[in-house]
């Protein structure tokens, strides 16, 4: 179902990387179609007798359902349908029944009131191959081990003490970004490219502490390949019966890509193990995430330790999640600030007051930068990086909003439309950070009108790190430079739907140094 995140939803075989006319696959496809014809008839008879009924929704075609009518910008398409069918509606795509939630009250039902039922994520077939059967945090089924892993990561890896210990690594890479941009003063700078490279360096430094310069290009290439592979439409997700055949080769390609990362991790883990075995651990101790994960592995306590495969899966989790979402959010924030110069001026004044023009932005400044925090929250309200969050799968049939939600269906929560609800937000389409100065809404509150990182027991475990990174990056860009645009240009606010909600056009700005001392750019 995650293949819906690819904007090229297809009706039949034209969009796939295999041909329907290939004689090798024709018998399989013919058999699958017969099976699904029977399944469709059974499905139709079964669900027409449900009480309460299924949610309303647009009419579809036999067998393939609504698939040919789905529009590329899925978050906006769902928003349009909600105006017709209400806050909860259904769609059917081949064998998949999708339920879409579009209101904060129903999101609360899914994420809090009945969160135990909706605690499982919809797991794409291809991702299982690359995560040792789904043992990482994102795709692991809800249960005691999932809860233990989340607790270990939140309390040990994402704790304040741990994040503070890695601060010097984050700061080093942000200062490197500032230095690189300073070398391009007066010229056009692709802001996303700068942010993306910095986020990757930060994650690599935070994970294993070494200077990652020599591996940066290869890592970026490999990460891009993984996102493309796992975001591609996969026939196995629509036809589970065909999954063992891997008709498009997506699973095998994903396995090869992920194996490269696991090979890199294994080499690093071996080096750490040798240091430990030689008794030199204290001399060579590194305050990075890999070391902390390995120490959890070496504990040997089943309840409070990690297997070596879990260590590698978690490392890859953090690499993929941390290198795209943060730069995307900061690029959106810079875009909004350049579209609203009065907000930019207000943020600059706060930075000058708290940080001063003789210093650089530090983690210690962030708690005092309340308007910076409000700008980031308002950006994530209007431009949530995961507009539909991670789809959920109910573990049993239940009722939401007076309608039946069957066990095993896919449930989308449209955070993009919920966070623009005019009943919750005054002038909801306006970029107005001040609204967050008048409330205590945060990323972990029980306000279901603001859920950019999800909520409940499966809320993103990396919220704390993301908060620090977004503030440090955005604060440094605005504090260090005045930003202009090429003459006659205006930043585009158009987005393109995907696993991450990115800008259609990358933001290109022209920086001018605003700090008095050259040392502040070194």
TrEMBL record:
Pfam families: p450. GO terms for molecular function: heme binding; iron ion binding; monooxygenase activity; oxidoreductase activity, acting on paired donors, with incorporation or reduction of molecular oxygen. Its cofactor is heme. PROSITE patterns: CYTOCHROME_P450 (PS00086). The keyword Zinc does not apply. It comes from the Eukaryota. The chain crosses the membrane at residues 25-43. Keywords: Heme, Iron, Membrane, Metal-binding, Monooxygenase, Oxidoreductase, Transmembrane, Transmembrane helix. Heme binds at residue 460. InterPro entries: Cyt_P450 (IPR001128), Cyt_P450_CS (IPR017972), Cyt_P450_E_grp-I (IPR002401), Cyt_P450_sf (IPR036396). Belongs to the cytochrome P450 family. This is Cytochrome P450. It comes from Gossypium darwinii (Darwin's cotton).
């Amino acid at each position: 179902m995650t293949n819906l995140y690819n904007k090229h939803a297809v009706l039949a075989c034209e969009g796939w990387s295999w041909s329907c006319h290939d004689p090798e696959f024709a018998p399989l496809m013919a058999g699958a179609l017969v099976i699904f014809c029977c399944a469709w008839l059974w499905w139709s008879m079964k669900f027409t007798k449900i009480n309460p009924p299924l949610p309303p929704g647009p009419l579809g075609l036999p067998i393939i359902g609504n698939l040919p009518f789905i529009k590329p910008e899925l978050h906006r398409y769902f928003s349009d349908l909600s105006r017709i069918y209400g806050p909860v509606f259904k769609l059917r795509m081949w064998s998949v029944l999708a339920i879409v939630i579009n209101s904060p009250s129903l999101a609360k039902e899914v994420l809090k009131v009945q969160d135990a039922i909706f605690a499982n994520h919809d797991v794409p077939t291809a991702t299982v191959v690359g995560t040792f059967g789904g043992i990482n945090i994102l795709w692991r089924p809800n249960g005691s081990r999932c809860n233990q892993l989340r607790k270990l990561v939140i309390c040990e890896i994402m704790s304040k003490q741990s994040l503070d210990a890695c601060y010097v690594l984050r700061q080093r890479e942000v200062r490197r970004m500032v230095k690189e941009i300073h070398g391009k003063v007066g010229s056009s700078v692709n802001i996303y490219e700068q942010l993306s490279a910095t986020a990757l360096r930060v994650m690599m430094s935070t994970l294993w502490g070494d200077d990652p310069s020599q591996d940066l290009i290869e890592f970026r290439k490999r990460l891009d390949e993984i996102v493309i592979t796992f975001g591609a439409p996969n026939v196995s997700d629509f036809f589970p019966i065909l999954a063992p055949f891997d008709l498009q080769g997506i699973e095998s390609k994903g396995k090869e890509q992920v194996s490269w990362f696991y090979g890199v991790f294994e080499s690093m883990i071996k080096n750490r193990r040798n240091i430990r075995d030689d008794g030199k651990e204290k001399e060579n101790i590194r305050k990075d995430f890999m070391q902390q994960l390995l120490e959890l592995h070496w504990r040997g306590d089943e309840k409070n330790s990690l297997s070596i495969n879990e260590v590698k899966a978690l490392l890859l989790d953090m690499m993929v999640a941390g290198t795209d979402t943060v730069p995307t959010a900061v690029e959106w924030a810079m875009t909004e600030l350049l579209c609203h110069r009065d907000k930019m001026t207000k943020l600059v004044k706060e930075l000058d007051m708290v940080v001063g023009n003789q210093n650089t932005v530090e983690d210690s400044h962030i708690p005092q930068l309340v308007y910076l925090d409000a700008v980031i929250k308002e950006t994530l309200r209007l431009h949530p990086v995961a507009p539909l969050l991670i789809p959920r799968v109910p573990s049993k049939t239940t009722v939401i909003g007076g309608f039946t939600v069957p066990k095993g269906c896919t449930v989308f929560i449209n955070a993009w439309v919920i966070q623009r609800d005019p009943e919750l937000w005054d002038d909801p389409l306006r970029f107005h950070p001040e609204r967050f100065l008048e409330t205590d809404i945060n990323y972990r509150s029980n306000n279901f009108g603001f859920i950019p990182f999800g909520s409940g027991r499966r809320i993103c475990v990396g919220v704390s790190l993301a908060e620090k990174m977004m503030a440090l990056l955005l604060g440094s860009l605005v504090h260090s430079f005045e930003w202009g645009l090429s003459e006659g240009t205006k930043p585009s606010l158009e987005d393109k739907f995907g696993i991450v909600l990115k800008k259609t056009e990358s933001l290109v700005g022209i920086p001018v140094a605003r700090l008095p001392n050259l040392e502040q750019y070194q």
